[in-house]
Amino acid sequence: MTDVASAAEVLAGRSRILVFTGAGISTESGIPDFRGPNGLWTKLDPDDFTYQRYVSDRQWRMETWERRFASPFRGALPNAAHVAVSDLYRSGLSVGCVTQNIDGLHAAAGFPRGALVELHGNASKVHCISCGDEADIDETEARWRSGEADPSCSVCGGILKTKVVFFGEDMPQREVTHAWAMVAEADSVLVIGSTLSVYPAAFVPLEVVERGQPMVIVNQGATDHDRLAVVKIDGQAGEIVPTLVSTLIAHR
User: Fold this and answer.
1) What is the DSSP letter of 61?
2) Three-state SS sequence of 188-238
3) H/E segment holding residue 122
4) Euclidean distance between CA atoms 104 and 100, whole angstroms
5) pTM exceeds 0.85, yes or no
6) Which positions are catalytic?
7) Which of 41, 170, 224, 246 would you label with 128, given CA atoms 20 to 30 Å apart?
């Protein structure tokens, strides 16, 4: 059997597949991953991206806004893997999707927000860290382009920040609770494009395995937990996931 056929055999008959995705599902949309050979952490120091530095260093906030609004990745579109994950959910075979990604491409591919958990936040949402008011990203960008290098909250004057989880910042509790509810319901887990090296997010698929359910991994390169997977497929998500999903749907 091919790797895809082996993965389909493992997941055959499962109707509550939990999909867990990382940066590798979005590289074919033109968004670099973090830990790959050409990942973002080869160009930037992850230790700089702490919540404390963002709050205390205005110059750093200004640079952060510039990276956000001048990013060449802002126009990225979902790829075939994102679409396939949405198809899997609509087929009734998936309990939902938990993602580490902040790019919003799952939602853009039609995945229902009610079944989508964005553990590390979403770069298209802005909020005030003092009063909690949520600001419109387009309005914030317009203010930045008009000369406000560090836009502040229009309600209380506090610090604005995209709703992306920085190092040293807690993951959103509502998302965490939703993720663990999916874990409790899942009868298997399909990991796509994650090295399973970032915690506490990696505990989500690992808990499904701990409960005795099978894990299939699709990722370019090794992950930290290949040994726990019943099937590991090394390759591009956009090529593998659509074939796997179409096979599962055809034989449900």
Assistant:
1) H
2) EEEEECCCCCCCCCCHHHHHHHHCCCCEEEEECCCCCCHHHCCEEEECCHH
3) strand 121-128
4) 10
5) yes
6) 120
7) 41
